[in-house]
Amino acid sequence: MSNIKTGKYKYISMIILTVLIPAIILASCENITSQDINADDLENILSVLIKDGDDPTLPAQPDSADSATAPETNESTVEAADITEITEITEVSEATTNRTPVSAEQNAEMTAALVSDEQPVERALSDAVKDFPDMPDAFKYVPFPNTLTMDDSLKQAIRNLDSLLKKDYEGGNFYAAISNPEFLTPILGNGSLNDARYYRTRLVETAYNTKLQSIFMNKDEMYTIISNSVKAGEYVSDIVCAPLDVQSLFIQDGILVDLRKIPFMNLNADYYNKYAVSANTVNGAVYGVASDLFFDPSKIYAVFYNKNLLKDCGLTNLDELYESGKWSYDDMLAICKTFATNVDTAANDLFSVGLSLENNDIVNGMYIPAAFLPVAGIEPADIALKIQDTVFRIFDNTDHISPLISDDDEKQRNTFSKGSMLFAITTLDIIPEITNSSFDWGVLPIPDIYMNQTYLYPSLDSSFTKGDALCLSVLKDVRNTEKCGIMIEALSIASHDYMREIYVSDLMTYHLRDMTSVNVVDKLLENIMYKKIIE
Q: Model-level pTM?
């Protein structure tokens, strides 16, 4: 056990803790460096401080005689006063140690403030913001991901967001029940499209001083959880971001609000997909919208084709066919038949076209343009018959075209990816899988049902979504319909065009092999159709 002595040594420790160290700290604040106090200075200071009799509080010191005759002992003598003083010192030390650490940013700001009250800390602007001179002040210091560029579509989205009604929600939360939180509250990283979503959300949170919170719900359980909660009078969330097929169940249950009654929502605005608005309209009431807020390449269909197989068989150049305005199912099936006739598809394990029966998306996709884009001079019943005939030719293989029909979309995707299929009708997220393939490939929009016909609206360059594409709704008895309307508008405006442009730019830089494919993807993303929820 170490010796604990009373007297001047204990008092020296107290002096160092209570007088000398604070004096040194004070000196350092007055621009005196540690080099200004050397060992000799310290000894002189101590010798002055501990001279017997200089301070009436110093304990009496034994004279030399007492010191000489004092019995030697190896045991430490600890008095009550010693314990009290040691405890007090320990408590002070622990209190200091347990303080919350100061972050590097806080430390920098505090240091700058100490140096001069007249020199406020300036936050650095990113280079991207510097390239946007009229950037609204409210958004200048929103962290800008280094994977993005401040292009014209983003600048316009920011201007549009700034022009909306100003509200301060004082840091309150805004909740969204959603089957895929990455679209609303993503974590920074995982690609430029994801980072664009992240920046968009930070902009909206900054604009309204609110915090977006995702309530994750598995899409297979979403209907049951929300329906039961609403019927029980329980609060679920401010908005619901649900797949189309789940949305239809909510509508049938009567638990959604007609969005025409939500304050501040402009359902005719171009940042809402007009086909989605129509698909979510029942008896004049609008129960859901879709926008670039939920832009998702994995839900959008296109036609992919193998240029090598076309060339080997001496078949039509599809780029020229498409650019001449002739791209229909009749054209595609005629090419498939020629391919199957000229090539021993069975011996070479080749297929002319791949279609998935998963969710019946392909068949539904044939009917979608007919619902939205009526053909001039042709009766709806005739259109329906034409679609049935097309489906029959493909799925019953009456034209002997060697199709690959599967309940598993991955099967046809894998077959196309290894170069064994002429056409694949699948979603855009196959593109990264075939970027480095050994064969050349291209992209075309979904074929028309009729060739060289006049539509009431443009039909070429269109696409359609999967049945589980996300739409946005508001539940009955929501707490604040005004805030719901403002936040839906803000999120949609801040996403408009920019998400698609980020995606197309990324494809053009890293994935697509020709400008026709770039133009096709760019155009079809402007005409994404949604299946009618309730016929």
A: 0.75
